[in-house]
Amino acid sequence: MSPRWDPNPDVRRGRSVVHTLHAHLVFTPKYRRNVFTDAVLTRCEEVMRKVCQDFGAELKEFNGESDHVHLLVHYPPSVALSRLVGSLKGVSARRLRQDFPAHIDKYLWGEHFWSPSYFAGSCGGAPLAMVEEYIENQKRPD
After folding, report:
1. CB-based burial of residue 48 (10 Å sphere; 0-12 exposed, 13-18 middle, 19+ buried)?
2. What is residue 110's three-state secondary structure?
3. Which residues cross the membrane (predicted)?
4. pTM of the predicted model as reported, rounded to 2 decimal places
């Protein structure tokens, strides 16, 4: 029997679903403070990679600057993106405060690390216009 060829390795299969869901997430610390150093970013990535793993998701890309981080997450349809975001922000805030208490206390005070808002954009696959055209051109049953 020949091996099965899958044209897109990002397409995952479950018992009753075929999916490829990606989200671009951007988080900023409270008051958009410049809290991220290379060491803090590295630790943040490690923590977020583990959180994604616990949700059955994959952190495909991670990067950031002194005042924000970007994530590209590949997640299954069984995961509510808002729950994943809540865990990413909650767990990372706790771990970063534990690992870098003096540094973080210089920039942030109180219990909050992340701003309560975030950016989430769906990405991957065909451009939206192409999907709209495809659906528009489907035949209606007679």
Report:
1. buried
2. coil
3. none
4. 0.86
Identity (one letter) of the amino acid at 74?
Answer: H
Contact call for residues 71 and 25 (beta carbons, < 8 A): yes
What is the per-residue pLDDT across 6-63, written as a single tens digit (0 to 9) for each? 566 777 677 777 778 999 999 999 999 999 999 999 999 999 999 999 999 999 999 9
Amino acid in the structure at residue 58: E
- Domains in the chain: ranges and CATH: 18-136 (3.30.70.1290)
Dihedral sign of CA atoms 122, 18, 125, 133 in order: negative
CA–CA distance, 49 with 74 (Å, rounded to integer): 11
